[in-house]
Amino acid sequence: IMSLAVFAREGLNAAIIMGCGDAIAQLAIEQKPLKDYNVARTARYCAIGFFICGPVLRKWYTKLDTLVSKDQPTFKRGMKKMLVDQTCFAPSFTLLLSYIVPLFNGERHTAIVQRIRNDYVSIMQRSFILWPMAQVINFSLIPINYQVFYVQLIAVIWNCYLSMALNK
């Protein structure tokens, strides 16, 4: 079981980084004037990071570390972990976020399901442009205690895109 301190640390890191991604999406990419900046949207994104993304990623990376044998070269192990991550975890986690973000924004279930039907495949296609290489680096070079933090830093880019895609 994850300790409360680890939960809080991972959650806080994810909340800050996901909030930054949403802020960048709103101000730089969507080019909203500061007066139109949606603070509540960023706060909701931070809450998702704190309560879901940080803790879930920590649990997943800890589990993934036990699934792939340590008795192999680092790069080969990193590639295997990336393949497991991108085939087993990423599609379901992206689907979860594709439902939760609009739900937190007050959308109705039927609208969310329709959005997922329309956008999920293209979101996953874009995910596969960024994440496989980022995860090979993560799983090959980054110590496990810093993997969630590293992923959250890379996720600033991803969260900008995801925030725009899920907050249309």
From TrEMBL:
Lineage, top-rank taxon, reads Eukaryota
Q: What is its main location?
A: membrane
GO CC list: membrane; mitochondrion
Q: Is the keyword Aminoacyl-tRNA synthetase in the record?
A: no
> Where located?
Membrane
Tell me what topology the record assigns in the membrane: Multi-pass membrane protein
What are the GO BP annotations of this UniProt entry?
regulation of mitochondrial DNA metabolic process
Q: Does the keyword Transmembrane apply?
A: yes
What family does this belong to?
Answer: Belongs to the peroxisomal membrane protein PXMP2/4 family.
The protein's name is: Mitochondrial inner membrane protein Mpv17
To which species is this protein native? Drosophila rubida
| Species classification | Eukaryota, Metazoa, Ecdysozoa, Arthropoda, Hexapoda
